Amino acid sequence: MDDMKIIDVDVHNEQDDRALLPYLQEPWRSRVAASGIGYAGSGYYSPIGVMKKDSIPPGGGKAGSDPDYMIKQLIEGYNLDYAVLTGVVYNISSTHDPDYAAAICSAYNDYLIAEWLGKHKAFKGAMVVATQDPLLAAREIDRIGGHPDIVEVMISSAARSPLGQRYYHPIYEATERKGLPVAIHPGAEGGGSSTAPTAAGYPTRYIEWHTCLSQMFMAHLVSMVCEGVFVKYPSLKVVLVEGGVAWLPALMWRLDKNYKALRSTVPWLTRMPSEYIRDHCYLSTQPIEEPDNPQHLIDLFNMIDAENMLLYSSDYPHWDFDSPSHILRGLKPEARRKIFYENAKQLYRLD
Amino acid sequence: MGVYYVLSEEDIPEGGHAVVNIEGREIGIYRINGEYHAILNYCPHQGAPICAGLVSGTTLPSEVYDYEYGRAGEIVRCPWHGWEFDLQTGKSLFSDRIRVKKYKVEVHEGKVGVVMGRG
Questions:
Q1: To probe the interface with A, which of B19, B43, B46, B78 has the most A CB atoms within 10 Å?
Q2: What is the pTM of this model?
Q3: Domains of chain A by range and CATH?
Q4: How far is the alpha carbon of A241 from chain B, nearest alpha carbon, in Å?
Q5: Tell me, what DSSP letter sits at residue A340?
Q6: What is the mean pLDDT for each group of 10 consecutive residues in chain B (119 residues)?
Q7: Is B110 on the interface with A (CB under 8 A)?
Q8: Which residues from chain A sit within 8 angstroms of residue B49, using beta carbons?
Q9: What is the value of ipTM here, to two decimals?
């Protein structure tokens, strides 16, 4: 462990809403100054809260809001080579006004570059775009995506419709043009103008909501494959962040089986659907499934060649943080090296 | 095996706790209803500093849609993933097999001692 190289692909830097004020244009600046950003959250309550309790900076403020403390606790504490800063602003995509959502994303991207990315050589950034207006999102990707420390484009899995649909294609076109992966992250499922957070509707409790987040990823992934996103954008890579891993084999088998009978409805797919997933998709590990027998998870990894599809993530500073020294210990060294470092290094073109 | 007298009784108020270092081990000593309970400051799940977790009561096993709150001050909740542990036994509330390491505590002439080693 000590000499293992690690890239953490999901680290949540946070900021007070007011930190974005210098980067906002009017009329949005006055709105945020008066009322805060005003996310449309899922509304589900957790007794644990969202934050890891020991991650509040000693000087106060939100967990994840002090770069120096993050460097000390996470980067140096776990000896990370790189951390992809994913923020929380992707959650703006469940709000109602596309222009406002786009303005918040632009302000955050400028803030991220100005106030975080230069603070440590390990910091790399996920720029965010809102999905309410994909054309505005594409314009933002063209504006920011060329920055040397921006390594991906983050969107929310809480959306108004499955993310493979043609409505969203301008985002993928711009992302591919910039040579960046697109990452999809949960958080606001069920809030604002997003769909219900599970296929069955609105569950009662956070435990149900959180468990069923994987459903959102299943639906988006099937949509992206079947809508031909990977045919139209052949060099596009997608990172499914924090959506779970263990559901993937069953989904691949079911989709491939259906393809054999229903290929004629998706004639642009010339290979088995699972092959597009293998070639284009990565999944982040956290929160990793933890069966009583750890070998069961390894068996499952072997079914889908997971060592080439997984990227280690901690989710720092959130409550379900996975420590790099405590998960996936049963894997072979080669698989660990790929999952904790090599896959992300290659995907994000890091040295 | 040995008893390490590391604190005086007045160092820990009722309902409070203190974290001490004994032979390189961080140990949390909790005072609950006048009794002391010592646990290793290390969650068996992913190694979190469990003594940074909130101490509270919790909902007891109950009928569907009944909520019976109890065990006030006897449950510590890991600050990372929220696992609940019974400070009296060290056991997690979801499995007898998952437990935080407990140490015996001896009180002698106002001094609080942690029993280390076997036992």
A1: B46
A2: 0.92
A3: 6-348 (3.20.20.140)
A4: 18
A5: I
A6: 93 97 96 97 95 95 94 96 96 96 96 85
A7: no
A8: 54
A9: 0.80
